[in-house]
Amino acid sequence: MLLEKVRIPWAVAHLSKEYKVFGPVTRRSYVSFQEIPDGEGLNLEYTTTTLPPKKLFHHAETLLHYHKEDFSAPKLESDQHVLLFGVHPCDLNAIQRMDKFFSKDYIDSYYCRRRERSVIVALNCGVPDDKCFCASLGTGPDVKEGFDLLLTDLGEAYLVEVGTSKGKTMVAKLGLKNASQTHFHEKARRLREASKKFKKQIRMEGLAKQAAENPNHEAWALIGDRGGLAGCFACLSCGNCSMVCPTCYCYEVAEIPDVSLKEGIRKRELDSCQLLEYALVALGQNFRPDRRYRTRHWMTCKFGGAGGQQNTSCVGCGRCIRSCPSHIDLTEVARSLWGE
What we know:
Layout: E1 2-4, H1 8-15, E2 20-27, E3 30-35, E4 60-67, E5 70-72, E6 82-87, H2 89-101, H3 109-116, E7 118-123, E8 149-153, E9 157-162, H4 165-172, H5 181-195, H6 207-212, H7 218-226, H8 240-244, E10 251-257, E11 263-270, H9 291-302, H10 319-323, H11 330-337
Parallel strand pairs: 2-6, 6-7, 7-8
Antiparallel strand pairs: 1-9, 2-3, 4-5, 4-11, 8-9, 10-11
């Protein structure tokens, strides 16, 4: 099916009758997922957003309230249906990994409830920027599964493909024109062209083992303490890389009492293994006291050798490179480990 570009705002406004629609919106020089009830401001030509769309499923929330001896848990939102419009393949891959993690051994009711009541309109990438490397990992520039609807820019219109029964229901209400084989050929051509535009690459196969077998490699000291790897400065332990990473799911749970000490809340929010306090345990022991150990742990996790293994491994979105104030480049770390 085909959706003409001039009809995008109309389609979003129509879908907003049933869903709370979020899409990429430009704010100054940045793009972020914001609510777009009427489709105005929607930017489907973006290359990346500052924060991944995971912020709508897993970010911060109150787990319970307590008052003296009484406890109560906030009710899960039961009637809010969310639609993410224009999710790129790398972010969609990351959401699929988080879906597996939060529903594998222990069901995270907060995350899973939100995902059950969400739909995703994915968008194949046409123009990757100089920090993207998803093509090396098979997570872009196109996507094969995990979407309810999939859009591909063909020029004057978007090719719309259905991935689920929810997606079929949505397009049935939009009255779209049928697509021809010519349109699918044009999609394939555009994706081939997009694949040729990537400037960064990474050799991921076997990289987790390479990192694990070289715990004292010079790369860890360069990015963690001294700086100098591919021109980078030493890590600042700011945690930016974790906050912008679409596959980092680590969180902390904190008890926050009222000043009266008679009531308070229990809250969880995203955490980062780059922060000194992350690995602090009882009696003040910290098993990752130095930045080189923390950066090594985070990189190894993104290479698929720590944390949730493939659940937290890199999807090539390039956000950690863009957001790092010390200009640490994950692909350059990989090159160093490979001896390139």
